[in-house]
Structure formats: structure tokens, C-alpha cells
Amino acid sequence: MRYIDVQNVTFQYEGEPVLENVSFSLDSGEFVTLTGENGAAKSTLVKVTLGILKPKSGKVIIAREDTQNRKLRIAYVPQQISSFNAGFPSTVHEFVRSGRYPREGWFRKLQKHDEEHVKVALESVGMWDYRNKKIGDLSGGQKQRVIIARTFASDPDLFVLDEPTVGMDDATTAAFYELMSHSAHVHGKSVLMVTHDPEDVKKYVDRDIHLARDKNGKFACFELHSQKDTSVVTERERGIN
């Protein structure tokens, strides 16, 4: 089932074209990466796709329902959003656990499978051993990992993640990629992830959407590589990340 369909999108920043005639799609059950050099407008493309930024032209269609005919749930984790102060009262476990409530209602009692989901989420980002610590006492990188864990615990249909593994060690990063791959390929979730480490993640993903400059240096090429097809559209050289 198609969750995202971006059609011929053009975006301008302060009057200068950043993205031009960009098209791509994302289906349920896919784990797809978005790569490119610094300034290649990866984060801009993500924000346009999610409706945070408005394109100058083109169309973005996001499904209203998931494969079970329920309202589609989207989780977006931008770069470095950890902003809890030292007085934040929740423990790591309490905060991530709260992500299990919204779909079924705030007043239901969590079941054994909910608690297992929370544990897997914390283990996947290397934060299970910190579960009883106050969030406000953690480092910025640790807070970011806790936010990612809560995002996973909330069980969205579509994950949109902007460089989520920054600050993770190699073992934790591999565990996180395994979890995202399992979520997509076993549970039918969709994952769109911005990354600077395409070689490390490529064995887990289905496709890579790559932003790169053309040989003239005036434009960037938006290349969609997959085992099934390859297409190229263009974007302007100037970008914001």
C-alpha cells in the first residue's frame, strides 16, 4: 500500500529554487534511506513531504489510512530535538512507556506485550540500563535516543527519521537498523530515514534515495535507486539541510 507519493515537487528558499520536479514514493513494508552530501536539502525534502514546508508547485499525497483501515499514524523525529531540562520529572522508563497509550486510550491498563515493546525500544537505542534515571539528568545524545525509543514504542505506521543514529555506538546502531528492518519487513511499517552512513545500513534497506550534484555543479540530481528501477529528476544546487 502506498503511504507517500511525492509528485513533481518544487521548493524555493528565499526565492531560490532548492528542489525542482522531485518525485518519489514509499510503500508499506519498505525501509528506505535518503542520502546526500551536506547541503543537499535532505531535511528540506523531508519537511516538504510532511507538510511542514509548503512546496512552490507539485503535490504530496500521504495515505489517510494504514493497511488495517485505521487512521495512519506518522512519527517524525527531526535532528537533535532533545530539550528536556534538569527538572523534567519523568524517568526514562516512564517517558517511553507513555508512548504505548494513545492508540488504545490513555486510561487502559498496559499489558505484558506493551511492557515488552517498551523494553525492546529502549534496548534498541542502548538505553535500557538507564531506564530508572531522570530524563533531565541525561546527556543530549542520550535524550535523543530516549525520544527515538518512545517514537518506536508508540507503534506508528510510518517512521520518518532524520539522522537518528548520531551519537550511537556501532553495536547500538546495528541493533537499531535491525529493529527498523524488522518493523518494515515483518510488521509492514514504512521507514524513511535520512543518514550519512549508507554503507553501514544498506544491507537492511530496500532502496536508497540519493541527492547529488551533477557534473556541471549547477544542479543536483535526485537519483532513486532500487532493484526494480532507476529514475532521475533535478534539483537546484543551493540547498538547506
UniProtKB/TrEMBL annotation:
Do you know which SUPFAM superfamilies this protein is assigned to?
P-loop containing nucleoside triphosphate hydrolases (SSF52540)
| Originating organism | Lactococcus nasutitermitis
Gene Ontology molecular function: any one:
ATP binding
Q: Which UniProt keywords apply?
A: ATP-binding, Nucleotide-binding, Transport
**ABC transporter domain: which residues?**
4-238
What SMART domains does the entry give?
Answer: AAA
Per the record, a Pfam family? ABC_tran
Recorded protein name is Metal ABC transporter ATP-binding protein
